[in-house]
Fold these 2 entries.
Entry 1:
Amino acid sequence: MGVLIAVEGLDGAGKRTLIERVVADLRGRGLRVATVAFPRYRVSVHADLAAEALRGAHGDLAGSVSAMALLFALDRADAQDELSKLLADNDVVLLDRYVASNAAYSAARLGQSADGEIVDWVGELEFGRFALPVPALQVLLDVPTELAAERARRRGELDAERALDAYERDGGLQHRTGAVYRELAERDWRGPWWTYRSDDGPAELAARIAEIVGR
């Protein structure tokens, strides 16, 4: 059975780029590696409904923190069989976002901290009721909010399919989400965390993951 590693961070933090480099390093070490990105847009109806709501569709759906959190959670619940198979067939499964993203954004929307009710609810819903696997390590890609926002803006200008949604356009929400993420990491919420900063390198993260695998 492989190990599950979740990479978390704000929109535009650079999660995809980091994961690509870590995957290359791990494969160079002879490890079997698979990746999954959440939300699974164009794969999961729940993820697509959430994306459409964040762009103004489906009435007042986006206004409900719990409803949006549930859609994102259902996306992951539907991926459970896929995750189980990937973990059985690989040494490492790297996730671009996982349960902590739901907890962080939901808490930030409500003005709550990492010890707020919504964080507990998300954890119990996804890890408890839906029985999703708990990561062996959660990595917080901690970059300045302004830098992440600028990257997300440029990305949206270059790719119409990645244009900014309501969450990404809300600078205050991004600041609050970053703060909740850091609190989750400090508390080792739902397992061990490691905060990845600008002076770290992909090779260092890959080495840490390889150590967890035992390679």
Note: The domain at 3-213 is CATH 3.40.50.300 (Rossmann fold).
Entry 2:
Amino acid sequence: MRPSSRTPDQMRAVSFERGVSKHAEGSCLVKFGDTHVLCTASLEERVPPWMRNSGKGWVTAEYGMLPRATGDRMRREASAGKQGGRTLEIQRLIGRSLRAICNLQKLGENQITVDCDVIQADGGTRTASITGGFVAMMDCLLWMQERGMVRASDVATDHVAAISCGLYNGAAVTDLDYDEDSSAQADANFVMTGSGGIVEIQGTAEGDPFTEEQFAQLFGLARQSIAELVKLQKEALAR
């Protein structure tokens, strides 16, 4: 039995609320149960210096956690003078995941920065950030489309979403919350496209190695969960 009483293939309640930021070109408040992330997409009509005159655009991301996103207050990284290794790794993952489904040539020499700020953390913050970050980015592309700058479907050629799966009490389960993640025998983050393409898989055994059969179980759960997330993304973007 999972601590949340969910079945092995049951995700937490997932929701996307668009247009939550007055100033950002695109925004989405994504909730995976008690994990809440505010994703904002900002447009700049320029690209990094190393991309100038390339005819291509750029999509990048930044990630952070508010001091009381967790049980104990965390010190702001700005006050420490630098970002931590975990933060850098996660924001690079978000950026890679979003770029994987973008035709940067069609974006033109514009840059979209997706900021993912964790308001409340209960496991799966990076996967929620990727999934909600896509909706925020699409909001930004639709904003650009309304102004004749791009055609959104030319830039974003597919959906992208992510989910965490793991072995909890020996069973493969999807969408780990903190209680499960902190005691899982193995856990993996899966990033996949709406058409089933694999963008990235991060898997780790926390104790004994896991088997190929167990990995196949985790992968099967991830495919099912990501298909559900893409369906929810489409419903949110249609509203």
Note: The helical segments are 77-80, 85-99, 104-107, 125-146, 152-155, 178-181, 212-238.
